[in-house]
Amino acid sequence: MSRVNESVTLEDKVVEILSRLSPKSLLRFKCIHKSWCTLINSPSFVAKHLSNSLDNKLSSSSCILLNRSQFHIFPDQSWKREVLWSMINLSIDSDVHNLHYDVKPLNIPFSRDDHNPVQIQGYCNGIVCLIEGDNVLLCNPSTREFRLLPNSCLLVPHPQGKFELETTFHGMGFGYDCKAKEYKVVQIIENCEYSDDEQTYQHCIAYPYTAEVYTTAANFWKEIKIDISSSIHPYPFSVYSKGFCYWFATDGKECILSFDLGDEIFHKIQLPSKIESDFQFCGLFLYNESITSYCCRYDPSEDSKLFEIWVMDGYGGVKSSWTKLLTVGPSKGIEYPLTLWKCDELLMVASVRRVTSYNSSTGNLKNLHIPPIMHQVTDLQALIYEESLVPIK
C-alpha cells in the first residue's frame, strides 16, 4: 500500500491553482468567501502570484502594454488629447511563423486634464509609473488601482522674472529596492536661472542637477545626493532591472545613466564601442531581464533604416560588456523599435504611426490592427507586461 504524501494539503493545492490565475479572475473570486478574500489579499499570496507570473518563461505568448494618444479638434478650434491604452497578447507558431494577436482596450480610471499626455516613466512588477501634467501616479492596470504621489520637494513654481530659480523635471525611474523591500520613485531635476526676462537659451545659467526619492512606505519625497555632470542629459523614460533604474542619456555622445535603488547612487555606463561610425544609439528597452539598446543607420538614397539590437551583460556597474543580438533591416517605412518581445521578433513603429511586428529570421513584417485606427497618433510607448496583484494603496 503506497503512502500518501500528507505534507501537501488540500489548502496548498488550492493556493497553487489560484496563484496561476489572472488578477481579473482572482478579484472576482474575492467575493466568494471572506476566507478567499483574506487569502488573495495576503502578502504571501501576492508574492507567490507575482513569482509565477515572472517565472512563466515557457509561455509561447507575450503581453504588451501599449500607450498612445490622439488629438481631437472641434469646430470652434478647441481641442483635447485622448489617451488610449491597450493590452496586446502576441504569440507565434514556431513551425510556420504565423503571428497571432488579440487586442483589448484598457481603462485607467484616474481623472486627468484633457490637454496633457499620460506618459509611462517606469515599470516594475505589474506597476507603471506615470506622469500627467505635474502629477506623478503609480498604477496597476491589472487591479485598476492607482495612487497619486505627493508634490515634489524640489520642483518650484515657474519663475516670473530674471534671476529666479527654474526647476524642470528631467528624468524619472521606478523600481523595487530589494534591500529595503519597498518600491521607490527617483526623480532628476534640472536647475537654472535666466539673466533676462525673456528667458532665452542664450541667457540661461545652468546649475547642478538635484534629485529626490519617493518611497511607497513613507509616502513622501526626500532629497538625495547626485554627482553626475550637468552635461549629461537623460531621456525621461527609464528601464528597471534587478534593483537598478537605467536611462538612455547623452554626454557629448550616447551613454547610459543608472541608479542603484538600494544604495541610492548614480553611475554612468558606456554603450558598445564596436559599432560602425554611421550608426547612432537611440534608446533602451528591457528583454529577458536584460538591458537592451538599439542603434540605427539611415540610408537617405534608399530611404531605409538598418537597426542593431545590443544586450548588456551584467547590470548596475560602470563596466559592462555588450553582445550584439540581432540586425533588423534595412527596411523602409519603419521609424523606431518599441520592444523586443521574442528573441527574433521586434515590435516597431511604422512611418504611418502604425504598430508592426518584424521577424528578423524570416523578414516577415506584419501590421497590427489596433482599434481605433488613428492618424494623428503621438506618444507611442510599449513594454512587456506581467499581470500582478501588487497593491498600490
Automatic annotation (TrEMBL):
Domain F-box associated beta-propeller type residues, every copy: 94-328
Stretches assigned to the F-box domain: 15-45
InterPro entries associated with the record: F-box-assoc_dom_typ1 (IPR006527), F-box-assoc_interact_dom (IPR017451), F-box-like_dom_sf (IPR036047), F-box_dom (IPR001810), SCF_F-box_component (IPR050796)
Protein name: F-box protein CPR30-like
